[in-house]
Specification:
The chain is mostly beta strands. Helices cover 3% and strands 47% of the residues. It has a domain of 68 residues. The chain has an eight-stranded antiparallel barrel with strand order 3-5-6-7-8-9-10-11. The termini are far apart.
């Protein structure tokens, strides 16, 4: 009787058969903290995500007054980025094209049409991050609702 084995979905083979499959690429999907450096000023980290959407790999900065969203595609040793930079309650919308490369514990993005630098680190779920990222206090009515950006906030 021949013994069968499978590793993930990437490669399957039979008992004594010599099969030489390349390792599947490491996935970058998931939750991240993104920090924007603009002209030497580094802003506090905000929630970001990389997800597969309609057969595309989409990166989106989910919080903060300056955001970006676009498609990542493998390129060289990193990823190309084609998207836009925008302010949810302002007029800073512009195209954003560049690259993300691996860095200690995450990714670093640089762009052709902006001087910003984006540093991303993977969210370590557990303890403090679990309470902040995706928890009851994140994304509630006080963020992006009537109290943000002047309306109803007394500003």
């Amino acid at each position: 009787m021949r013994a069968w084995w499978c590793i993930a979905i990437a490669s399957c083979g039979g008992g004594n058969a010599a099969i030489d499959h390349p390792a599947p690429p490491a996935t970058i999907d998931g939750a991240y903290w993104c920090s924007i450096n603009d002209d030497g000023v580094t802003y506090p980290p905000q929630a970001c995500t990389i997800q597969h959407v309609d057969h595309r790999l989409v990166l989106a900065k989910l919080a903060g007054s300056q955001r970006f969203e676009g498609e990542l595609a493998p390129a060289g040793g990193g990823f190309s980025f084609e998207g836009s930079y925008f302010c949810p309650w302002g007029e800073c919308t512009q195209p954003l094209h560049g690259t993300f490369s691996s860095s200690e514990g995450g990714l670093v993005g640089t762009f052709r049409d902006s001087t910003i630098i984006v540093r991303m680190t993977a969210v370590q779920l557990g303890g403090h991050d679990r309470m902040l990222y995706g928890g009851a206090s994140y994304g509630g009515a006080s963020y992006g609702g009537a109290s943000y950006g002047g309306a109803g906030s007394g500003q």
